[in-house]
Amino acid sequence: MASTPKGPVGRPRAFDPDEALARAMLFFWEHGYEGASLAGLTEAMGISTTSLYTTFGNKEELFRKALERYDEGPTAYLPRALQEPTALGVATTLLAGTIRTTTRPAHPHGCLGVQGALVTGAASSSVRDLLAAWRNDGCNRLRERFQAAVDSGDLPSATDPGTLARYVSTLSFGIAVQAAGGVGRDELQAMADAALTSWPPF
C-alpha cells in the first residue's frame, strides 16, 4: 500500500478533497467504472488508498460522489435548458450542451453516464442501477417540462411528453457515444440540427 506523504511535523500531508474528487470524476469519465482501478484512481487523485477510503469510502461510494460532481459541473446545462421558454428551446439547448461537454479538448470525450455504464459482473449491478436511475431522472425532468409545454399550448395537444422526452434523451446519449468515438463537434451539431428540423418530430 502506498504511504501517505508526510509534512514537516510527521503528519499526513493535507490534500484538497474537492480537487481529488474532480480528478476522480475525470478518471471515471475516461475509463468507466469497471475500468477504473483503485491504483489508477489513487494515482490520478494524488492520494493514498488509505486516504481514499477515509475521505470518500469505497470505490462505489467514490463513484456516486463523482457522478454528483458531474451533475453540478459538466452537465449543469440540463437545468438551464429546462428553463428555456419553449420546448424547442429546451431540446436545442440540451443538445448543444451535450455537444459542448462531450467534445471539450481538456476533458474526456463522451459522457460519464455512458462511459460509467460499461460495467460487468454482479458486483457492479448497483452501479448499473445507479446510472439507470440517473439517466431516467434526466428523462423524467424532460417529460415534466414537455408536459408543461403541452398544457400551455407550446406543443400540440396530441404530443406524448414521455415519448418526446425519450426521443430527446436518446439523441443526447447518442451524441455522447458518437463523441466518444471521435466524431467532431461540427458534425455532431449538424446531426442535432437535422434531428430538430421538424419539431415536434411526431
UniProtKB/TrEMBL annotation:
<keyword id="KW-0804">Transcription</keyword>
<protein>
    <submittedName>
        <fullName>TetR/AcrR family transcriptional regulator</fullName>
    </submittedName>
</protein>
<dbReference type="InterPro" id="IPR011075">
    <property type="entry name" value="TetR_C"/>
</dbReference>
<dbReference type="Pfam" id="PF16925">
    <property type="entry name" value="TetR_C_13"/>
</dbReference>
<dbReference type="InterPro" id="IPR036271">
    <property type="entry name" value="Tet_transcr_reg_TetR-rel_C_sf"/>
</dbReference>
<feature type="domain" description="HTH tetR-type">
    <location>
        <begin position="14"/>
        <end position="74"/>
    </location>
</feature>
<keyword id="KW-0805">Transcription regulation</keyword>
<dbReference type="InterPro" id="IPR001647">
    <property type="entry name" value="HTH_TetR"/>
</dbReference>
<dbReference type="InterPro" id="IPR009057">
    <property type="entry name" value="Homeodomain-like_sf"/>
</dbReference>
<dbReference type="Pfam" id="PF00440">
    <property type="entry name" value="TetR_N"/>
</dbReference>
<keyword id="KW-0238">DNA-binding</keyword>
<feature type="DNA-binding region" description="H-T-H motif">
    <location>
        <begin position="37"/>
        <end position="56"/>
    </location>
</feature>
